[in-house]
Amino acid sequence: MGDPRYEWMEPGAFEVAPGVHRIPLPLPNDGLRAVNVYAIADGDSLTLVDGGWALEESRAQLVAALAQIGAGPGDITRFLVTHAHRDHYTQAVALRREYGSEVLLGEEERHTLDRLMSPEHRSMDSQLELLAEHGAKPVRDTLLSLREDGPRNHIWEKPDAWINAASDLGLTDRSLRALPTPGHTRGHLVFLEEQAGLMFAGDHVLPHITPSIGFEQAPTASPLRDYLASLRLVRGLPDMRLLPAHGPVTDSVHDRVDELLAHHDARLTATAAVVAAGASTAYEAARALTWTRRERAFDDLDVFNQMMAVLETAAHLDVLVLQDELGAQRVEGVVHYS
Questions:
Q1: DSSP conformational letter for 107
Q2: What would the pLDDT profile of 303-312 be if each residue is shown by its tens digit?
Q3: pTM of the prediction?
Q4: What is the per-residue DSSP string for 163-192?
Q5: Which conformational region is residue 13 in: left (phi greater than 0), alpha (psi within -120 to 50 degrees), or beta?
Q6: Are β-strands 175-180 and 167-170 bridged in parallel, bridged antiparallel, or unpaired?
Q7: Distance, CA of 224 to CA of 185 (rounded, Å)
Q8: Distance between CA 289 and CA 147 in Å, rounded?
Q9: What stretch of H or E contains 280?
């Protein structure tokens, strides 16, 4: 690819610890560009952390990477999925249909899957409702005009088992523990191999970007509050190597968590300041803030990222309300902050 920032996306199987291989898989027209799944050798079989997006290109790249380590899709006995976003979940379901692999998922993802599997579900229903609630009618209207309501994607299915609490997972040769870390989604999990000092972090802790908060079909009342609590939970554990879903492996979970906590502290301060300067809704506040590391203006973002900006701003505003730094009231269906 040439650019060293993208080296982690190169196809293949890369050993990151004894018996653990990182396998990057492609994403379609996506700013993230790739997702890491991790193949863990366990006896004569494999456990995969996350499955990738159910795409022909992704499947072909996974098969080729597994062949590098002398395995194939039929050797995967279990998928441990960090959360129910399609770039993590859907290929696990597709391969289960073919090979009978077991799929495990966090219990709190049930709310999102119930909506995704409903015959009445349409793309981005929840996000469109939230945009209206937060005064972002221009963004909502543009998204509605672009929404395609074609055939429903039936790749959404329930897992074989739900994980509803911190729990040890019965592997043959290794000790792995699931830990709920709500925030990015309400049922997000990380998986810990504590003896080896490894954290399979999914999207909870990413080395180069700040994870989106609450981008799901059935978010909790305050996804950012949940996320910050989950970051502090992870910070209280012994430090481990960070095995993220997007980006390269790094040596310290703690270092990145400290950066993420500092980022959100700064963002809360900036969000409170734009309300003090006159912004009343999440939409108005988002327009007054800058975005990405390049500090881009809201109007310079594409409509999808404008939506994400409004929802992220709303999440920060709701935390400020919980901290009694702001008040909120609903006027004609729109939430106003002061």
A1: G
A2: 999 999 999 9
A3: 0.94
A4: E-SSEEEE-SS-EEEEEE--SSSTT-EEEE
A5: beta
A6: antiparallel
A7: 10
A8: 27
A9: none
